[in-house]
Every structure is written in C-alpha cells, then in structure tokens.
Amino acid sequence: MGRALWKGSLSFGLVSIPVELHTAVRDHRTKFRMLHAKDKSRVRFDRVCVREDRPVPWDEIVKGYEYSKGRFVVVTDADFKAAAVEKTRRVDILDFVEADQIDDRFFETPYYLVPEKSGAHAYALLREAMRASGRTGIASFILRDTQHLAAVEVIEKAIVLTVMRFADELVDLQQFDFPTAKDLRKTELDMAKALVQSLAAEWKPDKYNDQYTDNLMRIIKAKIKGHEPKLQPTEERRPAAVVSLMERLRKSLEQSGGKAGRVSRRQKPAARKPAARTRRTRAA
C-alpha cells in the first residue's frame, strides 16, 4: 500500500471514523520531456516578464486575477487566507442520496478511504449500512487548501470517495441545439435498436486496451536497444459506398453478425423496462 495522500476522519452524524485517503487510479500514459535536438539536453522554461523581456525571480512574482482584458487585480497570501474555509481533516457526509439521481458529469477522481485499525469496526458498519440502503453519501472536505464536494459510496469491500464538480461547473445543455426524435422513422429506429442489440456485451474492463500507448512503448523499447520496432500492420477502414442511413444500418448489422432481415415494418419490438442507471457495480 502506498503512502496516504491525506489522513483525517470520515464523519456522519456524531460518528467519526479515522481514515486515510489513497489514490484509486494509476496514470500509465507515456510522458515526455522537451529536449534540444542538437545535444539532447533538457530545455528549461524561464519565467519571463513580457514588458521587460527578462527572467523574473520567484520573490518578484505575485498572483493576479484578470477581471477584464489586460487588467488585473493582485491577490495576496492574506487574501487567500481570509477566503479560506475552516481547515479540517474531516470528510463530512452532509446527505445520503439515491445513487441513480446523480448525473455522471459531476464525477471526477476516485480515492480509497482506508480505515485505521481503531476505526475498522465503525468503517465496516457504515459500509454495510450504505450498501443496504443503496444510497450514496454527499460530502465536503478540504484537500490542499481547497474545498471539494465528494461522493462517498461502497464498491466491493471499500468505501470510495470520488471528488465531484459543483453544479456551476457544468456547461448548460440549453446552449446547444440537439436534434429531437420527432422526425425519426420507425423502420430506422428498429434497425438502429437491432444494431445496438447486436453489439450488446457484458462490461469487462480488461477487454479494452490502449493500443496507441502499447505501440509507442514498443517503439521506445526497440529504439533503446537499437532495433527496428515490430508492429502489427493496421488496415484503414474505408466506409462502403452507401446512399442512405438505412443502408448504412443494414451494412453495420451485417458486419456485426446481425440479421438485417429480422427487422421489418410488421415487427413490434418487445416492451422493455429501462435499465437502472448504475455508474459502478456494487458487489457484496
């Protein structure tokens, strides 16, 4: 287990559980540095004043807020201190809401809440009570001097805290022009439903790989050894010459192994209850 990012307590009502915050995701993306092509030395970026055209030392740098184009107000350390909310080391659960009511756009980064030894029993008690209720805790906490909203939920044996966006951070859908469903023809919709069904599968995350990063690492490792990289050749998909949306749907069904002939004007799709929206599998 890696080093904890934060230590504090998980609080609900008058109950306080000592916990540690640990990262729940890993970044495997390939990282690069800027180098001078001539001698492969690293390139340094200096802090240059655009008016004086000279590097500026750290002790001459202040933070400014641009309130109009080219006009700034300086914000001091005292200003940040005055604006700060009470610095606590608590994850305070404010409400328990139904999980399916939360829009997925609110979720950002997940972390594991791991109990300290003295809080193991209370942790398990809260976890099982949440699991039985099917509800997600909405909490507030301070991390790196910044207040965050968070979801607290049960995933397998863990209580997971996911940092959330505040409501005013979401872009309003109303500013976009999305098409309505009123002009869709039944035959087109039935064909599209059949195509979706032909591609239906169980969620298996290990099935999906980052092929680009895998190929890039093969190239890098080959270069380190002075070899030519051996990559599987890929063929560019060329769309078939089709003249209508229905024809595209039929050809898509054929490629996916479906039967376009199964959908006709006479067929009426069986009524299906909408599946409950679950963002994650909650296993016992």
Number of DSSP-assigned strands = 11
**Fraction in beta strands:** 25-35%
What composes the largest sheet? 7 strands, mixed, barrel
Gross CATH architecture of the domain at 6-26 and 84-168: Beta Barrel
Output the helix-strand order.
EEEEEEHEEHEEEHHH
Strand order of the largest sheet: 1-2-8-11-10-9-7
User: What is the gyration radius calculated from CA atoms?
Assistant: 27 Å
Quickly name the level 1 CATH class of the domain at 6-26 and 84-168. Mainly Beta
Q: How does the overall form come out from the CA principal axes?
A: extended
Unreliable stretches, pLDDT < 50, 5 or more residues? 259-278, 280-284
State the end-to-end CA separation: 23 Å
Task: Report mean pLDDT, rounded to a whole number.
Answer: 83
CATH topology of the domain at 6-26 and 84-168: Ku70, Chain: A, Domain 2
> Which structural class do you get from the secondary structure elements?
alpha+beta
Q: What level of helicity do the residues show?
A: 10-25%
